[in-house]
Design brief:
The protein is α/β, with parallel strands linked by helices. Helices cover 28% and strands 24% of the residues. The chain folds into 2 domains: 304 residues, Zn peptidases (Aminopeptidase, 3-Layer(aba) Sandwich), CATH 3.40.630; 136 residues, Aminopeptidase i, Domain 2 (Roll).
Amino acid sequence: MSEEKSQAELLKEKLSYQPRNAWEHSEKEIRDAFDLCENYKEYLDKGKTEREFAAIVEKELIKNGYQNLQTLFKQGKRLNRGARVYYINRHKAVAFAILGDKPVIDGINMVGAHIDSPRLDIKQNPLYEDSGLVLLKTHYYGGIKKYQWVAIPYSLHGVVVKADGTKIEICIGEDEADPVFTITDLLPHLAQDQMQKKATEVVAGENLNVLIGSRPYNDKKVKDKIKLNILKILNEKYGMVEEDFLSAELEAVPAFKAKDIGLDRSMVGAYGQDDRVCAYTCLKAMIDAKPADMTALCILTDKEEIGSTGNTGAQSNFLRSFISKLIYLTNSNYSDILLNQCLENSIMLSADVNPAVDPAYQEVQEKRNASYMGNGVLIQKYTGSRGKYDASDANAEAIGLIRKLFNEKGIIWHTSEMGKVDQGGGGTIAQYVANLGVEVLDCGVPLLSMHSPVEVTSKIDVYMFYKAMKVFLESNLG
């Protein structure tokens, strides 16, 4: 028989805070986590760019009864409780909502994530021949360690708008029968000078050029015969000419498929999990959520990795515009006063990943306030860097609401920061939504190898985050 706990042990249980491991949960929920992540891996493989992910989201929303808000707005259709609506912003960002019992101006339970990821953008005049090879010039997008992005297979994704205005979608390297591309690296035998450089200089940004061909066109009278042969292939398959690159958005992304990591298959390894792990779980939660008292809304933005700029980023008017249409179609009158009232009554969980403690690099973390793989949802009062610059810094009242909700609903969570105070840092979309008057709290999923070609998540964390988003969206917190 086990010994009874001492008074001090009971007091410690009552008064002390100790994060829990989410794996130490019911076997059913562990099975549900594995099932959920099979679907999640499919989304990662099919949606490697913001355009592709937005297109997948739209198809899933339509399948689940969501209607295009822009169409309803043009028709002047009124919206009633339980209505599910969405809007795609320039093929790169998505907002969608479920109307609740209470008026929209009483507030909205929002979740927000981003669907862009670090990658290599193909330049506008990219194609050149040199030393018997043809390559594409690139400009890296987002914060990357450039040396991680060489000597791996790449696929090419994006759109080309031709001179006559027609748009072609391109995806080469994902099908098993497709060729892939790569970026070459210097062999160690000749890398003495290279190896003396700082990590930021080992690979120069201008040398991240994608190798795409080496076979010449069979004609001795022309120069750049290999480049000509590549142009011929592009013309035959897509009707492209070289000038069409000027009005193209093409991205080179790792060609790896999402895979289970570990003998126990407990983790997912894939490109682009920052931040599609949060985008996917928010989408799934919105699809499974039931209409509640409060209106539920999800926004998936673009351009977060470069500051949330542009007309598809979180700094744009997209969220305000979407909510204003909800108010217009549900309220007898509309004014900016009502829109501002709605925003001030709303609460958002800004969903983004955070670096988990890595046994190899523990020195960069303050371990009492760090993210851990397997500890479920992470909650961050603030992000930013050093003196909390570029952070929204959530109010204690907002954290208290979420803490109470998660504890009552059995959500396993822990608190975190992004590394030691003076180590560095990073931001999310939180500050831009908070600027509108919304109460915002950062939360997310712990991640290893962030911004690398293969990022790693724990399946139980992915599942717990989905569960947390669903609980929040169905709550009455606004």
